[in-house]
Amino acid sequence: MGVVMDFKEKLRHKQLDSERRALQDLSFSKIEQAVQDYFDRYLVLVPAAAKTGKEMCAEYALESFLLGSSMGRFGFYGEEKIEAFKRSKIEFYALYDDFYDFWLFWGADQQSLDDLQDTCRKYLFNWWSEGFDASLKRWRLKLH
Description:
The protein has helices spanning about 5-25, 30-45, 50-70, 70-75, 80-85, 90-105, 115-140.
């Protein structure tokens, strides 16, 4: 008699292994620098919550990086980055909406709303792209 396997559990273990390998390519200092580059002018507006803002930016960068990393194999098999992005569009925009709502909670003035929206989108896409490129590199080096 064979062992009965739960495929959802097996898939979850594979996903965790993949995420652990992806996180080896990510440095926290790079995230901190990106937070300063993208959100420094917004963090000044909420000095009491600047630490929380930085932590949430790092959290969303991590999530976006992992999402992009999960799409790297499609790039390995010849799909363009934009096409691979379209595969993760629903998850990406759910992440983006949460991130933008986080910043709206801390109170942005009406003039900076469009700029904030664009900044959030660029920030998350940058990290999605970093994850995609890192994963693609791992696939090409047969380290997956």
